[in-house]
Design brief:
Elements lengths: L6 H16 L3 H13 L1 H32 L1 H25 L15 H13 L2 H9 L12 H25 L1 H10 L1 H26 L2
Helix pairs in contact: 1-7, 1-9, 2-3, 2-5, 2-7, 3-4, 3-5, 3-6, 3-7, 4-6, 4-9
Length: 213
Amino acid sequence: MTFLPDPAVLLAFSLASFVLFATPGPDMSLFLAKTVAGGRRAGMASMLGAMAGCCGHTLLAALGVSALLAASPTAFTILKVAGALYLLWLAVDAVRNGSALNLRPGGAGPVSFWGTFWLGMGVNLTNPKVVLFFVTFLPQFVEAGDPHAAGKLVFLGVYFVILTAPMCAVLVLAAERVIALLKARPRVLRAIDWTFAGLFGAFAIKILTTQGR
């Protein structure tokens, strides 16, 4: 089971994944908007499409990062430092600009399951923040000299999907209540923002100080 990360690493990744899920973004906005416009079936279709997109990001990140690691451990270290700086920027941005929940009204009527599925995948695959997240965040949980880095990256990416998919499904099933909660309680969003900023800021500082030794 060489692809399994250490328990402490898995716990830290689980916490980061939960905070990332709880922070409203393009994917969450799409799930909720499609559910409101086309019902739970449309919401589930967009959610499954986004999860498929995450699997694609995982595979690309694993192949690219493992190739970089094999070619140049120094370049891999530079990637990790760049990733840490990106996480730090995300933390600052969360505090400055706050979470965004943009629900664009959609037309009522029959909604194609597969059309919505591909839309969800497309939104996920073309979201620059998601791309950067998988390219810069996943490598933070493997060591530069780890010969099993590719397997661990794939495991973490699939684990992220397995961990967040049930929570996304609950989000879709309770879409109306979730929307009302988030809109009526801006303090909840600010609490999420500060939690996100604190966690990712701590990750970034830890990575930068470790790489600087």
